[in-house]
Amino acid sequence: MLLLAHDLRSPGTEELARTVFEVLVPTERERILRKRLAADRTRSLIGRWLARRAAASIVGTPWTTLRTGQHPGGQPYVVGRPQLSLSIAHSGRYALAAVALGARVGVDTEQVARVARLPDDAFLGPGERAALYAVPRDAERRAAMWVLKEAAAKLTGQGLRAGLRNIGFECRGAHFPLAARTPYAAAEFRAFRLPGGYVAAVGLSAGKPPREPVFVTPVRETALKTGWTDRLHE
Ligand SMILES: CC(C)(COP(=O)(O)OP(=O)(O)OC[C@H]1O[C@@H](n2cnc3c(N)ncnc32)[C@H](O)[C@@H]1OP(=O)(O)O)[C@@H](O)C(=O)NCCC(=O)NCCS
Fold first, then answer.
1. Fewer CB within 10 Å, N side or C side of the chain?
2. Is the minimum distance from the CB of 73 to ligand 1 under 6 angstroms?
């Protein structure tokens, strides 16, 4: 599998988002335009770019030749590539996309401080609360539970309909990256830190998930000559 991340504060992000918008098909554009805030549109566009980049790298084709779509429940997919599983996440400073070949994948990211503002009963089961509070209160680990649960809900495609409290997680070990499992989904999960007070999680139904995402930037993308810089400078 390939897990790509982008720091939305990187120079060139807005230009890249505009370029991605240009190559979207009308249905995808409409979905983006439904987002009220410009920052959310940018996050979503960069998520799609990462998704196409990851899928392109796995199947060995330029990213501009691939399309993404969304199932009625919201789960994204790569059009015409049923062997690929795709998951997208964006929050605050980061966008992430995970693509796996022949396995199901789910990814999520969130700012630790935002999860800290949520009450326990919004997402934690009684056993999880007991496990968390058996050790000194650890906001990062608590936020990791949130992203693990969302990653699992995306892996199955159920999304929030799953009810995050119903997705019970058990983490192995005390240090990041945390290895975790849930009876809710047959998959291996990892939670890791991202710079600036964020956590992210990825789940994979076959094989070991990566320990951390690969960061891609518009600058590095230029070097890869995948095509978007040509469109940008037309
Ligand atoms: C999937 C979901 C948990 C993501 O929530 P979020 O934290 O707001 O947003 P994230 O940035 O983490 O993820 C957003 C991405 O998840 C993906 N996604 C949306 N629904 C999904 C689903 N059912 N399964 C897997 N992935 C999904 C999309 O690619 C989306 O990116 P996009 O908006 O750019 O297209 C949530 O939007 C959801 O459950 N949606 C389904 C609708 C639903 O169940 N609503 C009931 C509300 S109680």
1. C
2. yes
